[in-house]
Design goal:
The chain has 125 residues and is mainly α. Helix content is 72%, strand content 0%.
Length: 125
Amino acid sequence: MLDQYLPVLLQLSVATGFAVSTLLVSVLLGKSAKSNAIKDSAYECGMLPIGDDKPRFSVKFYVIAMLFVIFDIEVVFMYPWAVTFKSFLANGQAAMVFWSMSGFVGILLVAYLYALKKGALSWKS
């Protein structure tokens, strides 16, 4: 059984050895540069960097992004169900599978209505 994993282990050991050896050679042979404020500043195409380096985003942006991901994952779960529903229909299990997916969609509908009621999707508030 171990002989089946030997190529994978060999590749892992070669990749790890290569990564470690290149890092060691870089540390041993490379020059360490002295840092100063000019070298550490951001380069803005020849312009002086003015303002914050990281723009601030509203929390609403992240809430809407998380809600999008959650409801996008719903589609990922519904697609295989829709593809296999025809085979469940032929086996006579369509009612059970339909109601289980209806429960899933119902839970997500409740979550969506809760988000609407709380104003999570209102960008201006």
